[in-house]
Write a structure and sequence with these properties.
- It is found in: Nucleus.
- Belongs to the HOP2 family.
- Its main location: nucleus.
- The chain is mainly alpha-helical.
- It has a domain of 75 residues: Winged helix-like DNA-binding domain superfamily/Winged helix DNA-binding domain (Arc Repressor Mutant, subunit A, Orthogonal Bundle).
- Helices cover 71% and strands 8% of the residues.
- The chain contains 8 helices and 3 strands, in the order ααβααββαααα.
- A 3-stranded antiparallel β-sheet has the order 1-3-2.
Length: 184
């Protein structure tokens, strides 16, 4: 057993007693292990041992159902709740339930009152946006760019052909060809 687990196992009875008292409901050893494993790093054997130890000391109660053992906090340690307190809690529950129902009713009412013009306006805006986007596509599309490049190549070819034709004829716009300049 690692040093951390050994320390956790030593403090396991206190951790488990506190947990069972706070939750105040029955648990099996597997449930307690699953709920406290991440927080405290307790192993299953340490949990089972600590629960049995607490049950023998009388700090918690243990019930056996076949092979299954259930552990829970001793109910004698908790103060008795008076009937007046229970009635007060029941009244709070009834009031809060009525408030929830009222709020749900008002939500349904508000949803029913939604202005249909708003939805129509949203649809119109969506259509207009779609139409605007389709009519204002950027001009730098792939096809258009390829077409412009082809046109530029054709124009460059035409210019080169004109220059070649001018050289053959000897017409160079008043300029002396470079070969002749070297001779002069």
């Amino acid at each position: 057993m690692s040093k951390g687990r050994a320390e956790a196992a030593a403090g396991a009875p206190g951790i488990l007693l506190k947990y069972l008292q706070e939750q105040n409901r029955p648990y099996s050893a597997q449930d307690v292990f699953g709920n406290l494993q991440r927080e405290h790093g307790l192993g299953k054997a340490a949990v089972v041992k600590a629960l049995e130890q607490l049950a023998q000391q009388g700090k918690i109660k243990e019930k056996v159902y076949g092979k299954q053992k259930i552990y829970f906090a001793d109910q004698d340690q908790f103060a008795m709740v008076s009937d007046a307190d229970l009635q007060g809690l029941d009244a709070k529950i009834v009031a809060l339930t009525a408030k929830v129902q009222s709020l749900q009713q008002s939500c349904r009412h508000m949803e029913a009152e939604r202005d249909p013009g708003v939805e129509e306006g949203m649809c119109w805006l969506q259509r207009e946006t779609k139409e605007y986007k389709s009519s204002h596509q950027p001009r730098d599309s792939g096809r258009e760019r390829a077409g412009v490049q082809r046109e530029a190549e054709v124009l460059q070819g035409v210019e080169e052909a004109q220059e070649d034709g001018n050289r053959a004829v000897g017409c160079n716009s008043g300029r002396i060809p470079q070969e002749q300049e070297a001779v002069l």
